[in-house]
Specification:
The complex is a heterodimer of chains A (714) and B (150).
Chain A: H1 5-8, E1 23-29, E2 35-41, E3 50-52, E4 78-79, E5 85-91, H2 94-101, E6 105-110, H3 117-120, E7 145-153, E8 165-173, E9 185-191, E10 194-199, H4 204-215, E11 222-226, H5 242-252, E12 256-259, H6 262-265, E13 270-271, E14 274-282, E15 288-300, H7 306-316, E16 325-334, E17 340-341, H8 348-366, H9 370-377, H10 396-406, E18 416-423, E19 429-437, E20 443-446, H11 456-468, E21 475-477, H12 496-519, E22 526-529, E23 532-535, E24 538-543, E25 552-559, E26 562-563, E27 570-571, E28 577-587, E29 594-606, H13 611-630, E30 636-637, E31 640-641, E32 661-666, H14 678-692, E33 699-700, H15 704-709
Helix pairs in contact in A: 7-8, 8-14, 11-12, 13-14
Chain B: E1 2-7, E2 10-15, H1 22-28, E3 47-50, E4 53-56, E5 69-71, H2 81-88, H3 98-111, H4 117-124, H5 134-149
Helix pairs in contact in B: 2-5, 3-4
Classes of the chains: A alpha+beta (714), B alpha+beta (150).
Chain lengths: 714, 150
Amino acid sequence: MTLDPRITGRFEYGQDQQVEGMLHARILRSPHAHAKVLSINTSEVPQHVVTLTRDDVADLEPLYGPMVKDQPIVARDRVLHVGDAVAAVAAGTPREAEEAIALVEVEYEEMPAVFDPVDATGDAAPLLHDGIEIPAELRPDGRNMCHRFRLRSGLGQDGFERADVVVEDTFAVAAAAHVAMEPHATLAYWEAGRLHVITGTQTPFNVRRDLAALFRLSEEMIRIVVAPMGGSFGAKTFMRLEPVAAALARKARRPVRAVLTRAEEFITINRHPARFHIRLGATRDGTFVAKSVDAWWNTGAYADCGPSVCTKGGYAAIGPYRIPNVNVDSRCVYTHLPPAGAFRGYAATQGVWASERMTDLMADRLGIDPLTLRLRNLLRNGDSFATGEVMHDVRFADCLRKAAEAVDWGGGRKNKGLAVMLKGMQTPSRTGVALEINAGGHIVLRSATTDMGQRPETAQRNLAAEALGLSPDLVTVGSNDTDLVPFDTRTTSSRSTFMMSNAIREAANDLRRKIAQRFEVAPEDLVLSDEGAGVAGSPDLRRPLTDLTGLRGDGTFVTPGGLDPDTGQGIASSHWHQAAASAEVSVDPETGVTSITRLHTAVYAGNVVDRPGAELQNEGSTIFGIGTARFEGIVFEDGQVTNGNLSDYEIPSILDVPDFTYDLLEGGEHSHGLGEMAVPVVPAAIGNAVAAAGHPVRNLPITAESVLDASLVR
Amino acid sequence: MKIPVRVNEQPVELESRTDETLLTALRRAGFRSVRLTCGIGVCGACTVLIDGAPISSCLVLTPAAVGAGITTTEGLQDGDRIASAFQELSAFQCGYCTPGFVLTTRALLLEHPDPTDDEISHALAGNLCRCGSYLKIKQAVRRVAESMRH
């Protein structure tokens, strides 16, 4: 057995990429949450070090952003958060760059800052962005608001008149850090007017489009090569280091590599802190009749994908329930915190926490078992969700029953909790893929699916091999280079296995048609095997695949949909991520310290394409959920991160992980993404278990202090 | 200055300033299995063995390692029991932290050839895996320990 290069350490990530003559970048960042930049003096920086300030990018588009163009490459007249980029340098060694950046002098005039999203919408709050253009599909409904998602179904708020019992409460989820082991890393260089970027990104085609707009070039003049990532979890989506590396390389006329420090990671992109007020109305027999969700998402100084987060989190907080009257107001607001963006569990983590804690509060009020209450209201095949879309391939109840069994729910509910969720997938969405026969008789798969450790090569090779009737050894995944691969929306929202499985099937059919044409037979008469291609019933006609070099099959899969931002009606997701979790805890009443004694997740996997990969994704997703449940939260003080290192900001170690169990529910027609199913349900199940132990917590993470604060007087 | 050490049983002269860490010097010399994540000795991504003991190379100044016998995973041979078990049990995802886990496991099994589950967890508590491969890592370590008994 040849050892995998990931084990020997010879595998090269984004930070390991190098090009002859490469310089190293460092970024000077604002120490203030909000300030005027009065002057920038680079005269002390040695001549051979390249500097980049606002004057060097004056000929470019001033702002970029995936949903709202609001972010400059380096600050113009103001800085908007602690860590906002003010200047950058490129030098021969990382140390030289570090020394040079310390020689850049900036004069600031501090300005008032706002950190709370509700405060930020007040008339007196400082305005973050002046004169930016908000795209027509967004609804900036108030000061500093970049989007408001609204959903109305049935009678909306008036539906509460039909309820016998109404419960309401407020819930909050803290900001969290992705903590990919490998930091962000990007290498950029220009060649004959064309920009080449080798970068660890989940979104090569978004980066290509946005760099083209920023540098005022056609997309063909930009080439993105995706480097494998040492983890991402949403952090490496959309543009991060690409603009500054490309701008430095343009000025330096040399390749430039930028790699973030750990401290910079905490002020670059985080998970949205969110706050919810939820009302739930039910009849006395436990039938849900109305729900309202009032949500505030703190997107920090730049919108990034915040508008989409507030939309997806808005409907995720409804939960997988049949509720005839629903009212959602979900707002995405700018503040002077570092920006927040995509994070594993994308908005569902926050929404499901609030929603599923509320479900248990209703169960308590009605005196109905939380499992019974959920089963009574879960969406079934043919039911309409609050968006109006009709549900299909529904397995919520199966997931929930499996979770309940695993903690012996019937044997008593003491210290136990359940949670169930739906999570949307990126919709609308498009995936292209090609299968080419190369000179060696191998099938080369051309795909933009990025590699952040989720084993996409294995999954895609298995899918292509199965679709063609060949062994996976004959399938090779080609370079992930926008010059070579068909368009794909992006590798996010656990969409790739689902989307690729459909696109690869199309590409395989197309390739079969092309091969059949060579043989002048109908595709159904073609026989394809590792030995070659032939015609059914005529073994002597068989030719090796090397005779078919150059033939290529293309496949595309598109999912239509989208929601109306004012009514929330439409297609939220072409298919749904479905999962449940159960937990049992013990709580020390003196200290508030909680330990997890049992934990189980049950997720709808559909057709499993890569068994070890599926297990690893669900195990990792569960462990992410444990971190969010128990201790992960960024602490800000006046906009400064006070725990921005791995000693003060803890992620789960092997000692924090109990021996948990899980079910991957199989069946159905499709392969489902598994990368984020457990993340949202694990904290909610643990929270409900802690509540069942007498500590009705309302906020994540569930710290010992919050457990004591939430103690019921007994 | 040049600091003479042995890396994977080969003599190497590490080019390093006196105030640079062993991590920086090893990476510069091409040993890129040794990786910077936290920079403060809590994550284990920069683990190397120095004379058999796991050390966070981000906390060691290069001159302090003069003459040391350093092990990195670049020195692994096909057939290495620990590496093979990690591979067979798919005990990694992105792989960034894997060299550190493999080396820490080697040090553990040298000292405790038949570790209890608790001993495994405590030995590996200084290596973080954000992808969350811990269950399979534990299985891999158990498998190696079992294979050493036979």
